[in-house]
Specification:
Blueprint (H helix, E strand, L loop, with lengths): L3 E7 L7 H14 L3 H4 L2 E4 L2 H10 L11 H15 L4 H7 L10 H12 L10 E8 L4 E6 H6 L7 H8 L9 E4 L6 E6 L1 H4 L3 H11 L5 E7 L10 H4 L4 H27 L4 E4 L15 H17 L1 H22 L1
Parallel strand pairs: 1-2, 1-7, 2-3, 7-8
Antiparallel strand pairs: 3-4, 3-6, 5-6
Helix pairs in contact: 1-4, 1-13, 1-14, 3-8, 6-8
């Protein structure tokens, strides 16, 4: 166990991030430990990135400030502010055809309030958050390890959260100034290439921990999409018709592909927790109280159905942590 690296990966999915938050809350209650104590590397994309950063934000004494239960409440308390659009904005944007559906003001206000001036380098454990640079046309990875090594890669946590959650058609791209430079990064949601960041996290863990002989990955989804796209409808679509469906296809397809890859690479050391969504609860911006309650109930039901696996997983995570402390002593 001393040579095992513990990795947590959290998918993107907008307001559906409440699902992995509920699972992590269950894990924290079972073990009596915070997520930052249970994992050596926490990776998250989009809403998963917000969770990854929130769960590793240090508070007084350097301990994690937010519990998973507190982060799950973020969706119920702040969802309407994050996904808020006036009547006139809805008219002007024409359903995202002419402009992003939501102003960035709401999400930025929430993120600034939750993260304040905390820097990426100060994360309580290793963090990896994907985004995509649209001017340079390449993936961009926010890494707490890189932030500690190179000042130009250290950003405020709220800026990292804003960049990874800048979903096309929902929010405008994020412009992040490069520290100590006149340059900037132009970033959008990392979900366009790594909605499930599990494989990225595994590669990072292998590169950063040459002493490791084993890798344990816990991967949390935000819901499988089952809504059909009838071929007789799709064959007549143009750009406007494909605009929203193709984003869902990219996000869901990427997640499923990484899930398959990790199943093959890590038999016995890979745990994926996912629920299946119905047609009426798939939207990433559905902040109605009844939808949030339904998502929470689905996550709680999955936790009950897989309670034995969750309990054994928690015990293993705690035991590995104890072995790490023994190794470091």
């Amino acid at each position: 166990m001393q040579n095992t690296v513990r990795i947590l990966s959290i998918d993107g999915g907008g307001i559906r991030g409440i699902i992995p938050a509920v699972v992590l809350s269950r894990l924290e209650r079972q073990t009596g430990q915070r997520v930052a104590d249970l994992f050596d590397l926490v990776a998250g994309t989009s809403t998963g990135g917000i969770l990854a950063l929130g769960l590793t934000r240090p508070g007084p004494g350097g301990r994690p400030l937010y519990s998973a239960a507190e982060m799950s409440e973020l969706y119920e308390r702040e969802g309407a502010k994050i996904f808020s659009a006036s009547f006139w904005r809805r008219m002007r944007t024409m359903g995202s055809l002419r402009e992003e559906r939501y102003s960035a003001d709401g999400i930025e206000e929430v993120l600034r309030r939750y993260f304040e001036d905390t820097r990426l380098k100060d994360a309580c454990t290793g963090v990896l958050v994907p985004s995509y640079e649209i001017e340079r046309r390449k993936p961009f990875f926010f890494k707490s390890a890189s932030a500690r090594e190179r000042p130009e890669y250290d950003f405020a946590m709220w800026q990292v959260a804003r960049a990874t959650s800048a979903a096309p058609t929902y929010f405008e791209p994020a412009r992040l100034p490069v520290p100590n430079s006149s340059d900037y990064w132009a970033l959008i949601d990392g979900g366009v290439f790594a909605n499930n960041p599990g494989a990225c996290a595994l590669v990072e863990a292998i590169a950063r921990n040459p002493w490791a002989t084993k890798f344990l990955v816990v991967s949390l989804g935000t819901g499988n999409l089952l809504q059909r796209i009838p071929i007789d409808e799709a064959k007549g679509w143009g750009t406007a018709g494909w605009l929203r469906p193709v984003l869902d296809i990219v996000l869901d397809g990427v997640s499923a592909t990484v899930d398959y890859q990790l199943q093959q690479l890590l038999p016995g050391d890979y745990h994926r927790f996912q629920v299946t969504l119905q047609q009426n609860d798939q939207e990433m911006d559905d902040v109605r109280p009844e939808n949030l309650r339904n998502l929470r109930l689905q996550a709680e039901a999955m936790c009950r159905e897989r309670s034995r696996e969750l309990r054994k997983l928690g015990e293993r995570l705690v035991a590995i942590g104890a072995a790490h402390r023994q190794r470091a002593a």
